[in-house]
Amino acid sequence: MDARALWQRYQNWLYFHEGLGLYLDVSRMRFDDAFVDSLRPKFDKAFADMAQLEKGAIANPDENRMVGHYWLRNPDLAPTPELTQEIVQTLEQIEAFAEKVQTGAIHPPRASRFTDIISIGIGGSALGPQFVAEALAPDFPPLKLHFIDNNDPAGIDRVINHLRNSLASTLVLVISKSGGTPEPRNGMIEVKKAYAGHNLEFAQYAVAITSVDSNLDKLAKDEGWLARFPMYDWVGGRTSEMSAVGLVPAALQGIDVRAMLDGAKEMDDATRVPDVKNNPAALLALSWYFGGNGKGEKDMVVLPYKDSLFLFSRYLQQLVMESLGKEKDLDGNVVHQGIAVYGNKGSTDQHAYVQQLREGVANFFATFIEVLEDRQGPSTEIDPGVTSGDYLSGFLQGTRQALYENHRDSITVTIPQVNPRTVGALIALYERAVGLYASLVNVNAYHQPGVEAGKKAAASILDLQTRVLAVLQKEKTPISLDELAKKAGASEQVEAIYKILRHIHANQRGVVLQGDLQKPGSLTVSAS
Ligand SMILES: O=P(O)(O)OC[C@H]1O[C@](O)(CO)[C@@H](O)[C@@H]1O
């Protein structure tokens, strides 16, 4: 296609949302009208599915759950007045709590203000708060947010060490929808011990964000934690940014959560339109379907050209991959669906992997996220008449063009600036696109059986560790791994046992492995 025809195609397909000032350009995805027409019946079904979901249908059949993240920003849409009231009240409670913390009306026992927050959570209970903090927190927030989003002991130490002089003024958010995920539970126990080590009573610093009556909720209630906020069973972890999961940390940092909700609501209204060309989420879903042949054959590379949005790709990674990456479709057929998502930020990535994107394996389509406002205030001229922002803008255009010329497709989302409304809108845009795409490819976007399988496997390894160590304690002399496995009733699991023991040995926790480390099968083990 020559430049004039491309310019025409750009204009034909350009979507613009006036209220949000958001543009979506799918002109560099090379679908034609016949392709769009062929997907119309699937889209009709997707729009109908989405309408049912928003009305409270059981959209997550495996878990027998409604899917209601859209109600969080438009509570009147909730299927019952009780739910509407609950959403409204929770938001009010969050705002009141954040204000009291910021003004010092709620303060720690030994300080006049909370200065910092440790947020403990994983997956959907971390990625949204992390993305939003990076995108929207002021340079000097009223409370500084730190995350424990893993089970790495050294990572936990690092956060606690950084805060060792301000632990007495650090609020702890423990965020877990289920209230039973091992990582946040373990992180909470470690942090609690650190508080005890400083003679601080954890309950006076701790806030739980979890489902009512979960183990975490019960613990927080029994111990009299500072506050508890509810998470609803009809909100999935990866779509929970607009629930207490995301709103509590955001409000505490002084982010305008109402504006974020408004932006999401406005985008929801726009993405409810049952017309592909006039619905930005449908245009994304269409482009993804085209890009990956409806089978995820190409990866989605997300390139925000704005530092504050660099966690967007990581956020989308969970939203897209946990939602769409499914072995079976809704009819039980094995389909192995999904779309792989990765990315960091432009132009930084141009000096890393964009070389391969331009010339290497053509197994992706790109999504550029462009922000029109360079910075608040005037810009210095780097060259006559040229600012850093002009360079960044030029890098984006240049990369988009270079990719296209080499038959690599791309989508471009443009927002006027990074603010709570546009961030809320971006989240809502992708949530809806994932929901529509899931319907196009007929998968349940709202469960994650694969993750559950991994969790079970991990639990069985820990169980094996307990059994093996109990047997080892009774042994008077060194024993071979095979023998130990047999005595523990786990002859088939010698490799797992070897790895358990090697780890414990490396941490000098009462296990000694002896012999040739190059030949694990020949090692003997004893309790020290
Ligand atoms: O909030 P929870 O229940 O601790 O779960 C954390 C994360 O674990 C998962 O269940 C599986 O990874 C995610 O869907 C969720 O965001």
UniProtKB/TrEMBL annotation:
Gene Ontology molecular-function annotations: glucose-6-phosphate isomerase activity
Gene3D superfamilies the record matches: Glucose-6-phosphate isomerase like protein, domain 1
Enzyme class of the recorded protein, top EC level: isomerase
SUPFAM superfamilies per the UniProt record, alphabetical: SIS domain (SSF53697)
Signal sequence segment: none
UniProt xrefs under Pfam families: PGI (PF00342)
Keywords associated with the record: Cytoplasm, Gluconeogenesis, Glycolysis, Isomerase
Compartment(s) where it occurs, according to its Swiss-Prot or TrEMBL record: Cytoplasm
PROSITE patterns recorded: P_GLUCOSE_ISOMERASE_2, P_GLUCOSE_ISOMERASE_3
Keyword Transmembrane helix: no
Annotated metabolic or biological route of this protein: Carbohydrate biosynthesis; gluconeogenesis; Carbohydrate degradation; glycolysis; D-glyceraldehyde 3-phosphate and glycerone phosphate from D-glucose: step 2/4
Active site: 322, 351, 455
Catalytic activity entry: alpha-D-glucose 6-phosphate = beta-D-fructose 6-phosphate
EC number: 5.3.1.9
Isomerase listed as a keyword: yes
Coiled coil stretches, renumbered: none
Annotated family: Belongs to the GPI family.
PANTHER family, alphabetized: GLUCOSE-6-PHOSPHATE ISOMERASE
Role according to the record: Catalyzes the reversible isomerization of glucose-6-phosphate to fructose-6-phosphate.
Protein name (Swiss-Prot/TrEMBL): Glucose-6-phosphate isomerase
Originating organism: Nostoc linckia FACHB-391
